[in-house]
Amino acid sequence: MDKQFCVYILASKRNGTLYIGVTSQLATRVWQHQSKVVEGFSAKYGVDKLVYYEAHGCAERAIVREKQLKQWRRAWKMTKLRPFRPWASA
Question: What's the CA gap between 30 and 24, in Å, rounded?
Fold first, then answer.
């Protein structure tokens, strides 16, 4: 089975802080954010709700997409997230 790389977006709350990252182990990485295992941005700002992800077949494509999403304005990111209704349980 080929390894999948995911670009993901976490949020602190509705209209809160967003975090964009890349991982090859999405469930583990989300758990790390939620458990605050690693000190850093997500622990500092309480960014622990998975609101979006995309799977990619290789790390290079995932990293390119991560950089693209990070360059988007916040309004564009929120428009991208709207169809997924990530705030329904937040």
Answer: 11
Which residue type occupies 39? E
Tell whether domain 5-89 is in CATH 1.10.3470.
no
Strand partners, 31: none
* 51 closest CA partner among 14, 5, 4, 3: 14
- Name the pTM for this structure: 0.84
Measure the CA–CA gap between 50 and 62, rounded to whole angstroms. 17
What is the structure's pLDDT at 5? 98
Cα(81)–Cα(26) distance, integer angstroms: 18
